[in-house]
Model the fold of this input.
Amino acid sequence: MNETAELVHPRESLFRPGRMPHIWCPGCGLGTMTNCLVEVLQGRADDLDRVCVVSGIGCTGRVAGYLNLDAFHTTHGRAIPFALGLKTANPELEVIVVSGEGDLAGIGGNHLIHAARRNLDITVICVNNFTYGMTGGQVSPTTHHYARTPTTPYGNTEYPFNLPWLVAAAGAVYVARWTTAHIRQLAKAMKQAIAKRGFSFVEVVAACPTNYGRRNKLGDGRAAMREFRDNSVIKQSPPLEDLSMSLGEQIIAGAFVDKERPTFDDELAALTPKEGAATQ
Amino acid sequence: MPEEAAQAVEAKALGGGARRARKCTIHIIESRCKGCGFCIEFCPRDVLEVSETLAPNGYHPPYAARMDQCTCCRTCQLVCPDFAIYVADVEPASGSAES
Amino acid sequence: MGGSIETVPAGVPVLTGEHFMLGDHACAEGALAAGCRFFAGYPITPATEIAERLAERLPTLGGACVQMEDEIASMAAILGAAWAGAKAMTATSGPGLCLMLENIGLAVMTETPCVVVDVQRGSPSTGLPTMVGQGDMMQARWGSHGSYEIIALCPNSPQEMFDLTARAFNLSERYRVPVFVMADADVGHLTERVVIPAPEGIEIVNRKAPTGPREEYQTFRPDADLVPPMARAGEGYHVFMESLTHDERGYPTMTGEAHNRLVRRLSQKIRDYVDDIIDYEERHLDDAEVAIVSYGISARIASRAVEVCRESGMRVGMLRLITAWPFPEDRVRRLASQVRGIVVPELNLGQMSLEVERCAAGAAPVVLLPHAGGGLHEPDDTVSAVEGLLR
Done:
């Protein structure tokens, strides 16, 4: 039914008033990722007042601004240390970092691996669209080898990060990868990651049809989604070193790491003479 | 053109017990739709099609062409990047399915 | 470990009493007395002792001290902690301050209270890590991109390391702006008498809390004093901390008009209150024919030079900047119209002297006594400069 009477999306209360329609391009995977996230958040029995969303700079970084939660649009690459400050000063907060792979693994790479090493109790949702989309589609640390971007006009000479392997090796206790075509699994993984104590990392493979897709002849958003659906395979415990991605090759998706170890907060509390929150 | 079509879908209980009718309606917020086609691509029952309606923002939103096939799975609602389509339940009726 | 002379006490926020204390340690104690309960930093000479002292003290007070992976992360972490409601601080030197600049801009733009201690050393670059300098004064003021105001205080002793660090927190809470404590390697590593008052004797200022219903709260809607009340994360206010140019709700608003309105308010909220913020010390200025304008460790040398000059009958006085930023423009203007010349000894090749020159506007000659750092001026050099002006 298309009608002029007021239509209210069931997840509307999770968006700041007046912020829709959002800035993302037609066929961009970010909206689908956000849809899965609000689906998970709306479904919680818990109070959402404790949930904080921290994002960096880039198209994915805009997520914080749309959500009607405590939201922080920080500087490029620095969402994770900001999140550390929030969480350590008030361990009651549930802190979710949502940012792109360029922000988190490029400029922010150092903070990513240290937070995983610390087993900081936050959730990181890393949208990997293989490019710096906001600035026009430049090469990023996960751009496919040989791909064309405006800063690699003759083809990318470099090899991409295998993010699940990197983050797992650094110490993350929950690592998963899903594409934006795997909406049910992605929502479930987000729910698990948020509930998980410790550093949880969900890589969300998404398309950037406007920049990356166009230059590498990957078609529009719908074609990219079709490719994600038809050319991916779900594996439960693959060797992490096998999770690299190349253009045209099958994408391995799944929940790869789910283990336990003491969190950053646990150790702070255990080894200090006196417990207590840092806020006044 | 595309209009509301409430439709009951038969759900067969195991062992052939009482049937439960389930109804829902699909709503499209035309001002948000950017015509990406995800909902059409991912609907498992082929319910949706591109409409010929030209929304004020220049895109062609979808419409429910085969509402009788809709199982109210909400894939369209969840896959939509623009929060432009959602499914609303209508009160389920017990007993025989309506058609 | 850490060079502590005294045993570090547990669970006592204010170490009331007389101490023989390292400047860096006094800085840490000033922070704790003001209510600081979160520190994030990175080791760097000559500021490391601040982190080490807080690493011992903060956990016993229910606070947290985290050594981050770099200074960029340190600055980001204290902003996050501030939004969780904590009073937060970092401490560094010149090279680390360079790395913090982008997030200092974030603090300004998002009006996040925080304190940044810079124990200056020989610069530029790696320079002289263990030796004194005053080369970051302009960096503190203008290091981040854009037009903005900050507050910077200059301690000249371990006592002032305590007093001014505590004051820095109060100023940052009152004005929702990053406040710098511009110390130096000598003040940081001097051990001197520090008197810490009883808690009742220490003023504490807290950021304005929001009033009114949560649903009506707007993250950046200012009061009449141009400072917005600050909610904290986790209390249902759904704050929207936005680094892009934003309106009062925090919504990104990319127009020149909105940008002009926001950027000017961020500056005006400081400029309108310079009388409350600016602090300086005057010695023998009433009848002075020559004034020395100095700050930090250089002001102690200048004090000696004033004594020597007065003993020889020269009418010399000193204006010591306790706040370097905002700069005391009016005071310097009036001074320039009174005296025959102004001498500015500083441990750089001319930074605050440029401000003095600007405000003197030709009313009196300004003589810079530069020094690249790594040592202090000789009082005799300052005396000679004074003599030159009186000739």
Remarks:
- The first helix of chain C runs from residue 23 to 34.
